[in-house]
From TrEMBL:
Gene3D superfamilies: 3.10.620.30. This is Transglutaminase-like cysteine proteinase. InterPro entries: Transglutaminase-like_Cys_pept (IPR010319). The keyword GTP-binding does not apply. Residues 1-26 form the signal peptide. Keywords: Signal. The lineage of its organism: Bacteria, Pseudomonadati, Pseudomonadota, Alphaproteobacteria, Hyphomicrobiales. The keyword Signal applies. It comes from Bradyrhizobium yuanmingense.
């Protein structure tokens, strides 16, 4: 299920990557990274997921580490994002499990936004990406509803993998309000995120 090689033909890679990073060259570096706040409560879905999947929730503190965003790294992000979005079929936790909230790896091919995020994170970690740069993030979408995405922290800014968009976007381009995410040093510690006024979202409508 996790073999995504050979997918993603015809992707716009370098142009998109360096276009997104142009903000830094224009002196707008403040937009590259979300503002971190105080420690906050971890989502109950994450806590329960970790109780059943300890290997995915390493608690030992690590030094924060960002990805060096090369063209190869960008290709991997786009491939993983699109492959998971195309492979996993959307299904609410109520329909799937009969409960309001349950985070799980979508081993049966169905899941909601948190499950897409968990699979993308796992695939990248299995490929050798540091988990300190792969941060599960809670946002409010354009409708004000709770949503989960994966923030990838890089030397060129923070990029978002989202089941509602086949493209990988800079965090300021999503149209979301960022609420909280995992700490880089400890995946079981969550930090609040400063309120922002991001650009208009280009995300397509998809569960």
């Amino acid at each position: 299920m996790f073999d995504f090689r050979g997918r993603g033909k015809g992707l716009a890679l370098a142009a998109m990557l360096f276009g997104i990073s142009a903000a830094a060259q224009a002196g707008e570096g403040r937009l590259l990274y979300a503002s971190l706040g105080d420690t906050t409560r971890a989502p109950i879905g994450w806590v329960e997921f970790c109780a059943d999947n300890a290997a995915q929730c390493q608690g030992a503190p690590l030094q924060p580490r960002d990805i060096v965003m090369s063209q190869a790294a960008w290709r991997d992000l786009v491939k993983v994002n699109r492959w998971v979005n195309e492979t996993v079929k959307p299904l609410t936790d109520q329909e799937h499990w009969g409960v309001i909230e349950k985070w799980s790896l979508p081993s049966d091919g169905y899941g909601d936004c948190e499950d897409y995020v968990l699979l993308k994170r796992k695939m990248l970690m299995d490929a050798g990406w540091p988990r300190q740069a792969l941060l599960i993030t809670v946002v409010r979408d354009k409708k004000g509803e709770g949503h989960a995405v994966l923030t990838v922290k890089t030397d060129k800014g923070e990029f978002i993998l989202d089941n509602q968009n086949e493209n990988v976007l800079a965090w300021t381009e999503t149209g979301y309000r960022f609420v909280k995410r995992q700490s880089q040093s400890d995946s079981n510690v969550w930090v609040s995120l400063g309120d922002t006024k991001p650009a208009v979202s280009t995300a397509s409508a998809k569960d």
